[in-house]
Amino acid sequence: MPEGPSVRRFHHLVSPFVGQQVVKTGGSSKKLNPAGLQLLWLQDAQVHGKKLFLRFDPDEEIVCPRSSPLSEPLHDEEHMEEARHHQEVSDLPSQSAGGAHVVPSGDDGPPQCVGGDSPAGGAERWLQVSFGLFGSVWVNEFSRAKKANKKGDWKDPIPRLVLHFGGGGFLAFYNCQMAWSCSSPVVSPASDILSEKFHRGQALEALGRDQPVCYTLLDQRYFSGLGNIIKNEALFRAGIHPLTPGSLLGALRLEALVDHVVAFSAGWLEGKFQGRQQHTQIYQKDRCPAGHQVVKEALGPPGGLQRLTWWCPQCQPRLPAAGPEQVQPP
Ligand SMILES: [Zn+2]
């Protein structure tokens, strides 16, 4: 699954199109009617965790004021100006994203208040893009078949959505899920591992709970953008066994784990911009850098998603369980 750094890269690709009008649309998406985006303006692009949020607005002239304290009729020009200004300001996502946040219940939960095939009238028009396992964004070119299918045909992948912009360029979205959302992005930057506002205290508290740290790391409420690769790499670098209950780890070890999460993610992002491949030490490896045999197992909370996990039993030993009766003999 594209993790936070990949989605940031997609955001970087999309950003130059902000401020441009969609002049032609295409794509196979049935859930989202691509033609509904015709003539809309891409006004903002934000990334929150593993999701990309794109804001589309109709032409300035036909913007209907949303219900607000200023929506009652105003007559003189000056007030009209003021009202327009107020609306623009209140439209800024950062405005609504400040202050208290609703922490989403999880990354993969059903999207809330999803509209039909067109932007909900009056509501904010945020197109929420999730990239699933193989999603991608292409700029000014289409993805080509890398190999023949079972029938021997070289069929190019079909984009879900294609947006041609007034500036002449286009974006093609592949294998992603898209839905209109009636509210601005609500993922708190405090839980985004790549945000400057990432809240370490909140993350440390969550990690310190009495459950395996490898489950907590994938909890998008506290580690938005953290995926399976980062989980495996950070645990290896911190020398922590994936099934260690966080409550058994001291404050310093939890701090070190969070440091590795942030450092690995930031390094990955930096590498993406420089065209470097992220180097992994344990993820999908047979041996750790010290040459030990790596163990692989699907781990996850009971009834939850089980994710393949790689660890080195020597570099990441299991802690002896706490409790007087389980203290190892001297
Ligand atoms: Zn090892």
UniProtKB/TrEMBL annotation:
Stored SUPFAM superfamilies: S13-like H2TH domain
Cellular component aspect of the GO annotation: cytoplasm; mitotic spindle; nucleoplasm; nucleus
GO annotation (BP), single: base-excision repair
InterPro entries on file: FPG_cat (IPR012319), H2TH_FPG (IPR015886), Ribosomal_uS13-like_H2TH (IPR010979)
Signal peptide positions (record): none
Primary site of residence: nucleus
Annotated EC: 4.2.99.18
Residue stretches of biased makeup (Basic and acidic residues): 73-89
GO molecular function term, any single one: DNA N-glycosylase activity
Keyword Metal-binding belongs to the record: yes
Enzyme class: lyase
Function: Involved in base excision repair of DNA damaged by oxidation or by mutagenic agents. Has DNA glycosylase activity towards 5-hydroxyuracil and other oxidized derivatives of cytosine with a preference for mismatched double-stranded DNA (DNA bubbles). Has low or no DNA glycosylase activity towards thymine glycol, 2-hydroxyadenine, hypoxanthine and 8-oxoguanine. Has AP (apurinic/apyrimidinic) lyase activity and introduces nicks in the DNA strand. Cleaves the DNA backbone by beta-delta elimination to generate a single-strand break at the site of the removed base with both 3'- and 5'-phosphates.
Quaternary structure and partners: Binds EP300.
The protein's name: Endonuclease 8-like 2
Gene symbol of the encoding locus: NEIL2
